[in-house]
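sorry for the late reply, my laptop died twice this morning and i had to redo everyting from scratch. anyway the thing you sent over, i finally got around to it. pasting the sequence first so we're on the same page, its 588 residues, then the predicted structure underneath. double check i copied it right bc i was rushing
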Amino acid sequence: MASKPRLSFWQIWNMSFGFLGIQFGFALQNANVSRIFETLGADIALIPLLWIAAPVTGLIVQPIVGYLSDNTWNRLGRRRPYFLIGAIFASLALFVMPNSPVLWVAAGMLWILDASINITMEPFRAFVGDMLPSEQRTKGFAMQSFFIGVAAFVGSFLPWIMTNIFNISNTAPEGMIPDSVKFSFYIGGIIFFLAVMWTVYSTKEYSPEELKAFEEAEKERLGVDDDQIREEVPEKSLIQQKLRHGPMVTAIGLLSSFAVWFYKLEQELYILTLGLASVGVLLIITSLLQRSGNRNGLVVVSDDLYMMPKTMKQLAVVQFFSWFALFAMWIYTTAAVTAHIYDMGIEESEIMEMEEALSILEDQVDAEWYRRLPAVRSDLAAFRKKIDAGEAQIPATMRVVNFFLEEGRVDLSPELRSSLHRVESQYNIGADWVGVAFGIYNGFAALVAFLLPVIARRTNRKITHAIALVGGAIGLISIYFITDPLWILVSMVGVGLAWASILSMPYAILAGSLPAAKMGTYMGIFNFFIVLPQILAASVLGFVVGSLFGGQAVYALILGGLTWVLAAGLTFLVDDVDDPDHAKIQEG
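ok and here's the structure:
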């Protein structure tokens, strides 16, 4: 029986090249979207809620695209049609987002961008499982990590490059996006499309018949039987489980939603509670459809969820804690670094002047900006509380700065106006430096990507992943102790190590535990365990930072570091049934 052919370095390069474009989109989004939201007037506590577009879109889109791509075959192949569709819409979204006139348009563009990126990205994960034999999969996912690192390194640097090399302004009138950010997004849109097109036209996919034959040969070669791949559950049992779980999950979600309303808890918690209720309703619907003999895609995906391979279940827990840390970092690094390290401070006399100005403005109920007053008042109250507690200076929020700097709103003393302009300038310098720092961790991830398979050969994939996660944890936590922005770049080396491993090792372990015919579906379902911690983070991080951490975003980074340590420990509990070393296969 023929084994799946080994591919050359350049064949693996070509099939992974599209990730260069995908990560350009992600890099620009991760480094700049919080900045765009803050510039357009978003409350820092609500930024995680605006970011919910990414995980919710992934939760919905990836399993659908995975299922469809498993069952697609046309002249472009199995996965490549989805590469093409996603690339077109993602590129368009990258052109529109930095020109958003108001916050809701930016949030909508983020949603469209994330849906398009997910349409492109999900089949790329399954693509490695389709195209590479077991002993080359670690190398294949490492190649994806390399392109992700390279693209993210350059993409994160783009606004800084625009400002410091091409002299394009990184400031703009209040409420407007700087030109340096706009041009960066335009370049990213072009690169996204061209890179994905390279993979579409340079790589030929195997037919379904070839993939089936390769799967049988690979199982025989590795000594893996069907029970190790997936334990089949009788359909009657699946229906009973869904009918039992559906009403229970729905009830828990609705009761939790009532508790949030009754006790006037943070509204972000509705994302969790109503989301849980929705899952319960879907389980009820799929069980009823299944009982009537309907086997549509929703039923198939829900069945596959119940029959996940053991290795996938174990990896799911590791991914949950790994991605919670990443989401905390992406949301809060800009706020943490600018407030913790840069000169964003304002004094009591300046706070008093803004409080007096606010009392005058509160009478202008017909003004178009009046709805923003409660949020500004809340920030000033938080500043006052810290001053009363003995703090000499308080880091200002960009929401307050932008509100008072808008022309014609109120007469400010020259001293206060100068101070607010200083804060605005420091914020933009710090935000640009965060882009540089993100570029460093992605650049290091690209450099270390090809080292990970070597370490895995000498140890194993689990040990390699655990070491990388601990390195990332040290990097995140160290930011709290830094006073010189240059040292953040050293912290990002640890983060880059973790990032490179998160993008490769779990997928290399997972691919060997999945049936070939359901590679796309299970890669999409696996995304649940990346999305769920992001939804959790978006639901609770705003409350945690605002209420428990006193508005100090740097503590969110420490929390992220601790969850990486936990994920590292859980990695050792994973069964790597496809470990080439255990199968006595030497990776070339």
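The chain has three domains: 9-232+307-341+423-571, 235-291, 345-422.
thats about all i looked at so far, will dig more tmrw
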